[in-house]
Specification:
The chain is mostly helical. The protein has helices at 2-24, 28-57, 66-88, 95-106, 114-121, 127-151, 159-167, 170-183, 193-216, 225-247, 253-263, 270-277, 282-300, 303-306. It has 14 helices and no strands. Helix 3 (66-88) runs parallel beside helix 6 (127-151) and helix 12 runs antiparallel to helix 13.
């Protein structure tokens, strides 16, 4: 019951912080500079710290299914991207809007919602799987996500400018640093644990605030058929395909169920920060995140019958 209450609180806070950001966006004098500084803090300081910490905090050697989890992480991300790219081909819409749909269909919520759901329906034994998934996702986000956003950016950079922006993008640099530290066997002293835990919590809720701020700075929510297509692929088609493949993969029940849970998650909150920082349509990204999270709620009630 305590874990159920914790999940309810997390979901409530999710919408409270989005609503708070939306309300703050009504204050004309502060909304633009505040959005600028929030985006700067998330992209240049807080997200890089999370990427490095995530890559160093897990213990992959203790998980014999490490390679399989990493491969399924890639499948979950690329499958949505390929399906959405097929739908968008030939569509007469802005390039920046296409980029936002691709970004949100590709990258889903890897920690904030899966963690409490795993504790409720699977147990603590599933946490290492989440850790490996998160590491793999962070690497994909910092590499594929950065190149994807730059390719569909509305900022008008030439090819040289785009490459420079990608290579100097802080999350990508953080992923490179994290990989070097991981391969060298480096680990932070335990005294840093509370700092990284606190940064993760603050980053999550500040990103939610940024989503609400981004929504409020637009004249209207861009709810379109493409948004429904994005969510249908992200939260319906991808989980079904992944679930079928998982049946033949030979994983343990715990690993199979955690991977399936991850495949069912809505778009990640961080995608709106990427969209804003790299010149995509942040309004579309914020709309997809909110819609996807709302549509996840009734599915939570069915999870006891989904996991086997």
């Amino acid at each position: 019951m305590q874990i159920v209450n914790e999940l309810a609180i997390r979901l409530a806070l999710f919408y409270v912080f989005i609503a708070f950001g939306f309300l703050v966006s009504r204050v004309e004098r502060i909304k633009k500079p505040l959005n600028k500084w929030v985006t700067f803090a998330l992209i240049n300081i807080m997200m890089p710290l999370i990427i490095i910490d995530t890559m160093l905090s897990a213990a992959p050697a203790s998980l014999y299914e490490l390679v399989g989890i990493a491969l399924f992480t890639v499948l979950i991300h690329l499958l949505g991207f390929i399906l959405m790219l097929t739908i968008l081909r030939g569509k007469e819409i802005e390039k920046s809007e296409k980029g936002s749909h691709l970004l949100t269909v590709t990258f889903n919520n890897g920690i904030f919602l899966p963690l409490p759901l795993t504790l409720i329906f699977i147990g603590e034994i599933g946490i290492p799987v989440i850790a490996i998934y998160s590491i793999s996702q962070m690497i994909l986000l910092a590499t594929l996500g950065t190149f994807m956003a730059a390719a569909y950016s509305s900022n008008g950079d030439n090819k040289g400018g785009m490459i420079k922006k990608v290579l100097t993008f802080p999350p990508l640099i953080a992923a490179a640093i994290g990989l070097i530290l991981l391969l060298s066997g480096f680990s932070f002293p335990t005294e840093f644990d509370s700092f990284f835990d606190g940064n993760g919590i603050v980053t999550t809720y500040l990103a939610l605030f940024a989503v609400g701020l981004s929504l409020g700075m637009q004249s209207k929510i861009k709810l379109s058929r493409l948004s429904y297509n994005t969510i249908a692929i992200r939260q319906f088609i991808v989980p079904i395909v992944v679930g079928i493949i998982l049946l033949a993969a030979g994983f343990s029940a715990v690993t199979r169920n955690v991977i399936l849970l991850q495949a069912m998650m809505p778009p990640a909150v961080f995608t709106v920060i990427y969209a804003s920082a790299l010149g995509l349509d942040a309004e579309t990204a914020a709309t997809n995140i909110t819609l996807g999270t709302i549509l996840l709620l009734p599915v939570v009630l069915l999870m006891p019958w989904i996991f086997i």
